[in-house]
Amino acid sequence: MFKKILIANRGEIACRVIRTARKMGIRTVAVYSDADARAPHVRMADESVRLGPPPASESYLNAELIITACKETGAEAVHPGYGFLSERESFARALAEAGIAFIGPPPNAIAAMGDKIESKKLAKEAGVNVVPGYLGDIATTEDAVKIAGEIGYPVMMKASAGGGGKGMRLAWSETDVREGFEATKREGLASFGDDRVFIEKFIESPRHIEIQVMGDQHGNIVYLGERECSVQRRHQKVVEEAPSPFVTPEMRRAMGEQAVALARAVGYYSAGTVELIVSGADPTGKSFYFLEMNTRLQVEHPVTEEVTGLDLVELMIRVAAGEKLPFTQDEVKLNGWAIENRVYAEDPYRGFLPSTGRLVRYGPPRGRRSGDDVVRVDDGVFEGGEVSMFYDPMIAKLVTWAPTREAAIDAQVDALDAFQIEGIGHNVDFLSALMQHPRFREGRLTTGFIAEEYPEGFHGAPADRQLIEDLAVLAAFAAIEADSRAGEISQQLGAHTPPPPIRVVRIGGDSLHVQFDGFEGGLIAHVDEGEGRELIGQWRPGQRLLKASIDGRRRTVQIARAGRQWRLTAHGASHRVDVLPPHVAALTGHMIEKVPPDLSKFLICPMPGLLTALHVGEGDKVEAGQPLAVVEAMKMENILRAEKAGTVKQVDAKPGDSLAVDAVILEFE
User: Fold this and answer.
1) Is residue 338 over pLDDT 90?
2) 249-288: buried (b, 16+ CB within 10 Å) or exposed (e) per residue?
3) What is the pTM of this model?
4) For 227-252, what is the mean pLDDT?
5) What is the pairing mode between strands 206-215 and 270-279?
6) Burial, 583: exposed, middle or buried (Cβ in 10 Å; 0-12, 13-18, 19+)?
7) What average pLDDT does range 442-464 have in this prediction?
8) What DSSP string runs through 192-251?
9) Backbone angles phi and psi of 330, in degrees to 5
10) Which residues of 71-109 are buried (b: 16+ CB within 10 A; e: fewer)?
11) Which secondary-structure segment (H or E) carries 271?
């Protein structure tokens, strides 16, 4: 077994590998860019080596620097994590030439599966179902239009070396192909150094299901069940679960056997994932097709670990050291249900735009393991740290396990209620809304789920009457506690008088009267003079979490002052709440409403990013929907379009400018 390994990655996956290595008694070496000098993975490792400046091309993607770090520290092996160099054949070969073990598959397998065009040809030869499409080289937009027409719309354009949702465009018409083909090539070149694009038929009502495989260097290959990864946004996975609510034991066996056959055909060992697209319109599950094979550890590997009881990182390390798999296919058992939500630095209330900046507050839910459920947080950030524009916007992975799917979903909702993030935009509310969505809970999933259920964007999860009234009770309780604390400040004029136990709470368009009566151990709350409900809880001003029980219902609410209002966040939505004494509430109708300024004549940058293209100039007339500019953020191109027809009066930015959020790009007459 290795005595020391280097982790050629950053963030949560580097921390994840270090934890397992530590458990195995293996010393670890972290590498870092200047942007990550204070990162958790650097502090966790036994040693650390600086690579270079923040851009990945000058640090984490520089194979020579990493090999030099191995030689300087005496690291015998490298775990690449996912992304960066994890699927680069040249890196695996360079390590082998330097006498350093690669904790991953052999270089020839990486090469065979890393090229999406060639991998589909190999899959077909191995007897694996493949999606109909054109696998040749497509040189021009005109060629792409012709090929797409022959295949039949809708089609998917994909960068040959792509992954992680980058370098993909769905085209429903010739216009989409003309607009998206060159962008797909550019994204492929920028992210993967390869601008080749292929086109394949888009399977409608598709489910994205993947099979986890694990092999050793002695010819043993097994599959470890499937993961359902259909809940995606812009081809980027958001929610993953194991097993899939759609897959039957017969489907699992058929998919697993094809995945193993493909792995065997390329001499595969270590952890790998065969991704399949499954037609949700076919209840037999026979219509599944090979998409690609990821020759690395997947982001979503924890859900497989939770239902199998295996540590995939440990297995990868042992396989790289030459050990045999310690189990056979018949010994692989699936137990319970696991769900993973990806917590991203993006703002769902603003069209999921990337958000970068300082994590002013970071308080993940407390991890736990019991026979009833598991809450697991895999992260690599810290309070006070920065979410950088240079890397992936994932903050953490929240994983829950329970004996049933419903219980695992409920555990997610509870944990998300307690997930505290401030300083940057994040998608915690959106994830909670997904977990509560009736269609998700029923398991009726496709890769179009988010686009279909949120066509007008996300505006918060709907709150039922019970939740609204419970939040009103908690807001009134917090306001009275805050007033009581304020009255205890020393050296005030006059004697302290306790605040009256009644408040008018305005929330969600409702105006509710909440009055409290005391009882031993808690309070009785009356809403609009209705039947009393028992409130048991403790909270002090300044605390961000209010945990309480209302008639036995557990409520975890994030609470904070927002000017004169209170902001309560729970169950997938933030609510701005007015909490007023009755005599003050009676006077608020006389307040003049503040009208927000009209910004419709400006094209405003919706995110921090790089202005890569500007399609119009001063005096140009534009039509609604016309592309105006392209802003690159988090390695993704975002096309900004005109919301209405007009004439450009003034241009305030030029290509190459780094723009802040809300920066004015141009102004209309």
Assistant:
1) yes
2) eebbebbbebbbebbebbebbbbbbbbbbbbbeeeebeeb
3) 0.85
4) 94
5) antiparallel
6) exposed
7) 94
8) HS---EEEEEPPSSEEEEEEEEEE-TTS-EEEEEEEEEEEEETTEEEEEEES-SS--HHH
9) -65, -20
10) eebebbbbbbbbbbbbbbbebbbbbeeeebbbbbbbbeb
11) strand 270-279
Is 142 catalytic? The answer is no
SS3 395: strand
**Rounded to whole angstroms, how far apart are CA atoms 243 and 441?**
14
In order of their start, the domains of the chain are 4-103 (3.40.50.20), 132-201 (3.30.1490.20), 205-335 (3.30.470.20), 343-441 (3.30.470.20), 465-487+497-590 (3.30.700.30), 602-668 (2.40.50.100)
Tokens coding 194:
């390869």
Q: What is the CA radius of gyration of the chain?
A: 27
Q: Is the peptide bond between 243 and the residue preceding it cis, with omega within 30 degrees of 0? A: yes
How high is the pLDDT of residue 378? 98
- Measured over the CA atoms of residue 390, residue 395, residue 401 and residue 406, the dihedral's sign is negative
Q: Which of 89, 200, 228, 292 is catalytic?
A: 292
Burial class (CB in 10 A: 0-12, 13-18, 19+), 494: exposed
Q: What is the largest CA-CA distance in the chain?
A: 89
Beta strands in 388-501 (DSSP E): 394-402, 420-422
Residue written as token pair 């709150």: 463
CB 412 within 8 A of CB 240: no
Q: Is the omega angle on the peptide bond into residue 154 within 30 degrees of 0, that is, cis?
A: yes
Residue with token string 């809940």: 231
Phi-psi region of 456 (alpha: psi -120 to 50; beta: other; left: phi over 0): alpha
